[in-house]
Amino acid sequence: MSEWNPTDPEAAKVFYDLTSWDFDQQAELASALADAEIQHSWEGTELVIPPDAEDETDAIFADLEQRLQIASTDDTDTDTGDDAGDVVARELTDDTPITDYDLTEWADLERSLVIESLGVANIPFRFDVGVLSVPTSDESRVDDILDEIESGDIIPVIHDGPDGDVVPFESLNSFFLAGERLRKDARDADGLERLLEALEIADPNRPPRGVELRVWRRTCELAESLADALADDSEPEDVQAIAEALHDLLRPLI
Predict the structure, then answer these.
(1) What domains are there in the chain, each with its CATH number?
(2) Please, what's the b/e burial string for 129-146 (b: 16 or more CB within 10 A of its CB; e: otherwise)?
(3) Residue 152, φ and ψ in degrees, nearest 5
(4) What is the C-alpha separation between 243 and 225, in angstroms, rounded?
(5) How confident is the model at residue 147 (pLDDT cuts 50, 70, 90)?
């Protein structure tokens, strides 16, 4: 698997706009990408993948669109590396009042998370030698984003796996799908498998990129409780109650 960091502003990326896809369709897509071991991340409703996975991803889209009867989506945008910042960092107009932030002391990963967060928030910005420039009209929103990153509520993490080849969001997605299955059937084998796989790589102190630390820790706590309930052969309704709580916690994030 190629090395690819979705938080790197210089990394080549391919975007798929899935605004028209509903929640269940996006969940099916996330599951198919995980099964195919395709690295990916999300920026709002946009799927982001490395360019070398585009052909395989297109094939998955074609299969899902046919199987789920989804209208074909051709809204892909390739960001080719040398001009990577042009897609994410929208240029400010010369007559826009701006506010500058000196982020030269910030780590590269923190600055990458700033770039992604501003893009998701649809805030125009410019980065020049560690100085962030944003419209003064968006200053309060930018202050909130920077405060969250600096306080550690949002921690940028690239990989959870021991060999650096597991996209961290996949552990969150696996927990969600486990909760989705086990809340319906406390003995669902696929749900149990996903739960155990995610627990193997999950670290309560290292949340996936863009996920608040307190939410991630609660996720891991519920997942551990769910695994313990299954191991103890608890009553099905008790297992399903924990799975329901896990599912409901993660649904807004998936």
Answers:
(1) 13-85 (3.30.70), 89-151 (3.30.70), 169-253 (no CATH)
(2) eeebbbbeebeebbeebb
(3) 90, 5
(4) 9
(5) confident
Question: 74 or 33: which carries more pLDDT confidence?
Answer: 33
- List of residues 6+ apart from 87 with CB closer than 8 A: 13, 15, 77, 79
Query: What are the structure tokens assigned to 134, written together?
Result: 């944003």
Give DSSP secondary structure letters for 50-95.
-GGGHHHHHHHHHHHHHHTTPPP---EEEE-STTHHHHHSPPPPTT
How far apart are the C-alpha atoms of 248 and 246, rounded to whole Å? 6
Helix (H, G, I), strand (E, B) or coil at 185: coil
pTM of the model: 0.40
Model confidence at 92: pLDDT above 90: no
Copy the structure tokens of residue 45.
């409703």
Helix count and strand count (H, E) for the chain: 9, 7
